[in-house]
Amino acid sequence: MPLFDLDFDAREEDAVLAVLRRRWLTMGDETRLFEEEFAAMLGQGAQCLAMSSCTAALHAAMHQLGLRPDDEVVVPALTFVADANVVAMCGGTPVLADCASPRDWNMNADTIARVLTPRTRAVVVVHYAGQPCHMEPIVALCRERGLVLVEDVAHAVGATLDGRQCGTFGDMACFSFFSNKNLSCGEGGMFVSRDSRRIEQARLFRSHGMTTLTLDRHKGRADSYDVLSPGLNCRITEMGAALGRVQLAKLAANNHRRRHLTDCYARALDSVPGLSRPWDSSDDTRQSSCHILPVLLPQGPDRAAVMAGMRGEGIQTSIHYPAPQSFTAYADQFRETPVAAGICARELTLPLFPSMTESMIHDVVGALRTHLLQQDAT
What is the pTM of this model? Predict the structure, then answer.
């Protein structure tokens, strides 16, 4: 049983074949339509630019800040390393904010405020596992301190807070369409802002700082181009955009299915002694995208042994995420974040994907219970 599985069918195949038959493969009509349809889904006046990855979108966001070595950007202590990497690559210093509590694995306004200094320039929030952060206090804090707020929405496409889409609260937002995401293009991302100036800066960053696209010259709409600022190649392909459009049409139904399966997991996991889950209390204001199914193992069992035992039964698990302090590149750089450290040491991610059945969930939970009990016996 894989950790994730794609909801791909003949619609994705047809969409890609149509692109191949049109014989234009990069930054064309499919990309434009994907951006427009994604913006319509988000609402709130969002403008969208499809990019090669979420990391590229985050890089574009950090590039706009003009960071210097003494400038700090707050990032979550529980997140993928891309958030810290883009800050460091743009010349700034990433600073970790701890999780709110052992039950709420997101950062919040209080944990952010604890690490702010006169050198802080921006805050990157992550809606971990698809569960929206409490954004109103974070937005207010950033406005009060004059900080740029960036949403990393890699886990939370389609998630909402008080009916408003994640990715529309910050100054900029970055989505992921990696293979394991709720909306998958294989590789791909989206840069989002309601500020046209930020969109134009990201547009230049995405394609070498050039004023016209290759497609414009191919179609005779332009003969040449200027370069207004240094940029990179962060373009999505037309095949990726075509996949994204089909996946976007499936997103609401698939997220609904994920929420149902997560509820089924919650009931089944009640039978596992000592196990806990984040956000296991009802909150009608936040609708998660249920990107992954994280659990917190009891203290004591060897997580690697549990994972190996489940792998022996054909069940894939994972870890989201190793502690940033454990990486060689960031050794001795970060301050202690005790709540996140405790979570990182015991977190286990179980399989979750729309085509799962309740029977499969019971198989996963049964195997987990068995291997935890075996650990207790030893």
Answer: 0.96
